[in-house]
């Protein structure tokens, strides 16, 4: 065995074995478990927390909600006719995840409070060894269903350690802390900030928003779903299915057309109207108007973001540069004193933390091999990691529901595992030539997209490469992931 496990020799010999081990019980993990159960595969799920739900379990900040309509932000095989709103809130999505896991009978296979610490490939056995906080496991196949929004990031601010007040990240919201009449600084103006800032604005004494770059924010067509429509969805499942298909096609229309300037200009006009409706001060409007093409960064949705920023107790400042005690300084020299800092600075999406604990054939960390620019074949398998699959991996993000991408990926992964079982294949490893050719083609196609049009976004990694976006439609992605082709891989018989 690898020397890294020598100190655990006794544990290694008694490591619990399963054909497939899934890491994480969020959306991807739940989907993988359901489909593996249907395929009658031997599997377990290792989950670090005490509940399922993934990102929807972790994020509990005020007004946390989805920006994809609920009927599309759900499994096609588990429709929910009872959504309360067009865009579901965090609690309802978490409950949906829990209910789905219960309904499909996968809960007994989930091992809670089993956080993965390290995953290593043992070539002599053609197995993965997984070191967790609750013991050692081994398996033929591993599905890393951890998701990219896993580890919150904090900005590197001069003097941050000197701050004398309360601070926390939106992803680790302190629900026991009372913000009433506090002076609050919000750092960042991304997807979480546009939800929680309007929610807390009425209760705080003063609110200072530090934003490096204003986002494009479109109106959110969010309404309560009436009992009459819920009843229709329950009585006539086809109606809900057709509604879901219509939503999917709307997102495909966006995917196809956003690359055209004439189309994005129309959306920009709608976003500018959204600014003007909420903000009357012409100087503030200027601060909130982006100077890059709509779509270059993530497009956000809100009906109350601009109204909140226009309130008397809110001040909009440029990016923060320094902290001295409770005094914060912006890049234009303006200052404010605050009691609380809330970081709305998101996650390190282009540098997945899971890469730091995976050691493949080479014995090196996957994150070191990626060197800041993650790559995978179809966003799913990497050359150095046989029999290991990554969900929502590099270059799979596009304008659609995460559920659409996940279902397509899990179908592909289950096809790989089933074929390996039937054909007595011990290992499946990506053909480097096939992987290089596809990634080269993707990078070429991305050059002409709005995502690569020049703004600074989390789509572009530290090396200047777009390691996040899928350059084509979700339909094309689903077609590519429709069936696992052994010809794209090197295999070894059992």
UniProtKB/TrEMBL annotation:
<dbReference type="InterPro" id="IPR036188">
    <property type="entry name" value="FAD/NAD-bd_sf"/>
</dbReference>
<protein>
    <submittedName>
        <fullName>Flavin-containing monooxygenase</fullName>
        <ecNumber>1.14.13.-</ecNumber>
    </submittedName>
</protein>
<dbReference type="Pfam" id="PF13738">
    <property type="entry name" value="Pyr_redox_3"/>
</dbReference>
<dbReference type="InterPro" id="IPR051209">
    <property type="entry name" value="FAD-bind_Monooxygenase_sf"/>
</dbReference>
<dbReference type="GO" id="GO:0004497">
    <property type="term" value="F:monooxygenase activity"/>
</dbReference>
<keyword id="KW-0560">Oxidoreductase</keyword>
<keyword id="KW-0503">Monooxygenase</keyword>
């Amino acid at each position: 065995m690898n020397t890294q496990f020598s100190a655990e020799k006794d544990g290694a010999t008694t490591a619990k074995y399963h054909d497939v081990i899934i890491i994480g019980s969020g959306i991807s993990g739940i989907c993988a478990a359901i489909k593996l159960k249907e395929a009658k595969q031997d599997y377990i799920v290792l989950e670090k927390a005490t509940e399922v739900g993934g990102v929807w379990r972790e994020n509990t900040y005020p007004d946390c909600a989805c920006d994809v309509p609920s009927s599309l932000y759900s499994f096609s095989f588990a429709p929910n006719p009872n959504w309360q709103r067009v865009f579901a809130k965090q609690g309802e999505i978490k409950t949906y995840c829990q209910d789905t896991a219960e309904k499909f009978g996968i809960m007994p296979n989930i091992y809670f409070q089993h956080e993965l610490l390290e995953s290593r490939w043992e070539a002599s056995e053609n197995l993965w060894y997984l070191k967790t906080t609750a013991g050692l496991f081994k398996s033929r196949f591993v599905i890393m269903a951890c998701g990219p929004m896993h580890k919150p990031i904090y900005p590197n601010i001069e003097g941050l350690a000197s701050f004398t007040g309360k601070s926390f990240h939106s992803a680790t919201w302190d629900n026991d802390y009372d913000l009433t009449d506090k002076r609050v600084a919000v750092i960042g103006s991304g997807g979480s900030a546009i939800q929680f800032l309007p929610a807390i604005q009425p209760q705080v004494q003063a609110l200072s928003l530090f934003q490096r770059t204003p986002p494009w924010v479109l109106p959110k067509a969010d309404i309560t779903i009436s009992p009459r429509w819920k009843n229709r969805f329950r009585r006539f499942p086809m109606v809900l299915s057709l509604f879901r298909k219509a939503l999917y096609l709307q997102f495909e229309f966006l995917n196809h057309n956003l690359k055209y300037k004439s189309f994005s200009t129309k959306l920009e006009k709608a976003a500018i109207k959204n600014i003007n409706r909420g903000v009357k001060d012409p100087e503030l409007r200027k601060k909130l108007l982006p100077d890059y093409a709509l779509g270059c960064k993530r497009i956000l949705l809100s009906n109350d973001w601009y109204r909140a920023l226009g309130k008397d107790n809110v001040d909009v400042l440029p990016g923060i540069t320094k902290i001295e005690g409770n005094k914060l300084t912006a890049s234009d020299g303006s200052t404010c004193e605050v009691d609380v800092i809330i970081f709305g600075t998101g996650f390190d999406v282009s540098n997945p933390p899971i890469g730091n604990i995976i050691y493949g054939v080479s014995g090196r960390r996957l994150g070191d091999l990626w060197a800041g620019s993650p790559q995978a074949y179809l966003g799913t398998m990497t050359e150095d990691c046989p029999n290991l699959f990554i969900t929502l991996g590099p270059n799979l993000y596009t304008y659609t529901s995460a559920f659409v991408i996940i279902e397509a990926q899990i179908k592909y992964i289950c096809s790989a595992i089933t074929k390996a079982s039937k054909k007595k294949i011990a290992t499946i490893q990506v053909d480097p030539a096939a992987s290089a050719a596809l990634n080269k083609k993707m990078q070429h196609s991305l050059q002409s997209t709005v995502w690569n049009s020049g703004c600074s976004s989390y789509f572009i990694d530290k090396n200047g490469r777009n390691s996040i976006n899928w350059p084509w439609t979700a339909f094309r992605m689903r077609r590519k992931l429709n069936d696992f082709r052994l010809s794209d891989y090197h295999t070894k018989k059992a």
